């Protein structure tokens, strides 16, 4: 045997032995129920955080969400088993009658499968539960660490858990040359462009399983490996065809896939599962089918339902209250919300008009599909700033600490730190024009909360959510007030340092994290306090579940919060931002550099 081949085999053996050594307890700690669903169990802890960043109830809340995930998973399994046998007919062959429900149910089973993680303790739904429109399900996380912990406790990402609902409506990312703007994509920074699958929503679902901060597999082939052993494998084969799993996985695959991504034993190898070219292609096909199945679920009426009061209003089956109607007029007029969160109706309102036209652009999804920098302050509670030391695998999530700046789409276009490779080199030149920009999410379901916590607003009883990419805003009242007064009460301070006599988020807004490309269509709207409340009332009409029940919204088993005021909601958890070092060259020095630069 050639020496080079021997060396490669030796290196592979060392890697596997290293993985086994580090994680021999990691697998042993994952117990399984009789139904085959993994239990949440302790794993090696990574805790670089100072006191107060991690919530005290974090372990208990993670366990609660895992129990709720099992409820939804069992419901989906039962629905799958109740489906009649498939009928394959026609040209091209089609699963007649039940094809739609089959692929949507398959996507749901995948979404609630905790086996799709090295520790068998993390599902997509761990950060995206139905009762909050598939956003973050843990109130204490929303108040404190902002980003959700992944399979390795407690690695965490850098942004809030974005809502699934209506994300499938975003088109493939494109640059409009006439307007000089980007439209489409998924994720806050639009890095799921849809360039290959032609569906940003499908591509988005391929990110978390191999994100080091989330589900954390070291190789996309691990998803194919886990699906090949899933209880719902027969459904996958029915939908995507016999032979889908004809893949010769090497004996060490299970150990490799039990090792979180980023571990030092991989030495940066992004394909540590050693597959033949043909098997790698089959594994890639399975991963693409994973994405398409989950996107089918997110496209379904279970997730993107169009069942709100607003939809009933459009159909003539609901009359808005005076506050809701006034809020709608403000949304389309003085509040200038409709310039980005488009309602797809036929006219521009004046204060005394009511729009009774049809939707010329199709379903009203309340987004322009673009991106904007709204000027949010840096949030010092975000867990990413503290993950500056190696964890037990040798992985350091953020070596830059508080030097890190979230440039949003600008970082993605540069293929920069913490984002993803940009598949279109012609876009790179536009990075300075997009620094700080984040996706304009749909306003639909922004107010969704569990039935027993009927609002997001104090005094409640309410469910504590977080808004915008860095979770700085804690209520819809604050959100509208920020848009209204950002430029009325600006202070050259960081969060936690508003001057004496002012109240942060009321009459003091700290300076933006990224001062470039600020959206100036908001910031000084002249809304009264009552008008702000009326816009909040309208936003609450966009919550699905009014015309028919919203599936699995009933699974929340946590505790509602109460008391306080929506204006200062969460302010008791403000902490002072430490002195900020300059933005490092690895972020702000990547060509083409931000303009103006440096970012403070």
Question: What are the defining features of this structure?
Answer:
single chain; two-stranded antiparallel ribbon; 6 strands; 28% helix; 3% strand
Report how far apart the termini are. Answer: 57 Å
Largest sheet: 2 strands, antiparallel
H/E series: HHEEHHEEHHHHHHHEHHEHHH
- Rg from Cα: 24 Å
Q: What share of residues are in beta strands?
A: under 5%
Please estimate the helix content. Answer: 25-40%
**So how many helices?**
16
The assigned structural class equals: mainly alpha
Low-confidence stretches: 1-41
Number of strands: 6
Topology (elements, then pairings):
Elements: H1 3-28, H2 58-82, E1 87-89, E2 94-96, H3 99-111, H4 139-143, E3 174-176, E4 181-183, H5 200-204, H6 221-228, H7 233-240, H8 253-257, H9 277-299, H10 309-314, H11 322-332, E5 371-372, H12 409-413, H13 431-434, E6 438-439, H14 476-485, H15 529-539, H16 585-588
Antiparallel strand pairs: 1-2, 3-4, 5-6
Structural commentary:
Helices cover 28% and strands 3% of the residues. It is mostly helical and 600 residues long. A hairpin with a 4-residue loop joins β1 and β2 (94-96). The longest helix is centred in the first third of the chain and has 26 residues, at 3-28.
């Amino acid at each position: 045997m050639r020496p080079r081949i021997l060396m490669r085999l030796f290196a592979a053996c060392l890697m596997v032995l290293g993985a086994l050594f580090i994680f021999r307890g990691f697998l042993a700690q994952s117990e399984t129920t009789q139904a085959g669903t993994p239990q949440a169990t302790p794993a090696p802890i990574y805790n670089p955080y100072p006191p107060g960043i991690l919530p005290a109830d974090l372990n208990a809340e993670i366990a609660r969400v895992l129990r709720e995930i099992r409820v939804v998973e069992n419901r989906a399994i039962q629905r799958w088993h109740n489906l009649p046998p498939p009928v394959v007919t026609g040209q091209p062959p089609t699963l007649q009658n039940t094809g739609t429900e089959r692929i949507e149910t398959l996507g749901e089973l995948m979404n609630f499968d905790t086996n799709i993680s090295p520790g068998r303790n993390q599902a997509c739904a761990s950060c995206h539960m139905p009762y909050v429109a598939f956003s973050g399900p843990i109130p204490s996380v929303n108040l404190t660490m902002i980003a959700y912990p992944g399979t390795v406790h407690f690695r965490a990402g850098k942004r809030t858990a974005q809502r699934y609902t209506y994300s499938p409506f975003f088109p493939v990312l494109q640059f409009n040359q006439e307007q000089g703007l980007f439209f489409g994509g998924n994720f806050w920074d639009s890095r799921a462009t849809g360039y290959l699958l032609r569906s940003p929503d499908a591509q988005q679902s391929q990110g978390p399983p191999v994100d080091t901060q989330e589900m954390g597999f070291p190789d996309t082939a691990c998803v194919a490996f886990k699906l090949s052993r899933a209880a719902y494998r027969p459904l996958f084969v029915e939908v995507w065809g016999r032979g889908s799993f004809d893949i010769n996985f090497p004996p060490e695959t299970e150990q490799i896939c039990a090792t979180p991504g980023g571990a030092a034993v991989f030495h940066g190898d992004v394909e540590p599962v050693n597959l033949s070219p043909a098997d790698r292609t089959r594994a890639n096909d399975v991963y693409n089918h994973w994405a398409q199945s989950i996107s089918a679920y997110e496209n379904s009426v279970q997730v993107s339902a169009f069942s709100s009061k607003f939809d009933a209003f459009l159909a003539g089956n609901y009359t808005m209250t005076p506050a809701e109607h006034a809020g709608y007029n403000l949304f389309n007029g003085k509040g200038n919300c409709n310039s980005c969160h488009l309602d797809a109706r036929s006219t521009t309102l004046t204060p005394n008009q009511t729009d009774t036209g049809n939707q010329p652009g199709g379903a009203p999804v309340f987004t322009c599909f673009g991106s904007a920098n709204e000027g949010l302050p840096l949030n010092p509670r975000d867990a990413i700033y503290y993950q500056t030391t190696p964890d037990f695998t040798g992985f350091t999530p953020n070596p830059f600490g508080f030097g890190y700046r979230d440039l949003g789409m600008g970082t993605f276009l540069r293929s920069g730190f913490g984002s993803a490779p940009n598949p279109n080199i012609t876009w790179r030149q536009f990075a300075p024009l997009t620094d700080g920009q984040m996706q304009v999410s749909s306003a639909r379901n922004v107010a969704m909360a569990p039935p027993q916590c009927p609002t997001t607003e104090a005094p409640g009883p309410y469910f504590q959510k977080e808004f915008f990419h860095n979770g700085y805003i804690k209520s819809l009242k604050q959100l509208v007030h920020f848009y209204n007064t950002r430029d009325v009460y600006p202070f050259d301070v960081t969060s936690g340092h508003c001057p004496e006599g002012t109240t942060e988020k009321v009459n003091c807004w700290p300076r933006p994290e990224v001062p470039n490309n600020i959206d100036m269509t908001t910031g000084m709207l002249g809304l009264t306090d009552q008008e702000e409340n009326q816009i909040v009332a309208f936003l609450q009409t966009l919550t699905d579940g009014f015309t028919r029940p919203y599936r699995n919204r009933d699974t929340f088993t946590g505790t509602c919060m109460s008391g306080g005021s929506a204006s200062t909601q969460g302010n008791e958890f403000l902490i002072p931002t430490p002195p900020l070092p300059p933005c490092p060259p690895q972020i702000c020095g990547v060509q083409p550099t931000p303009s103006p630069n440096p970012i403070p």
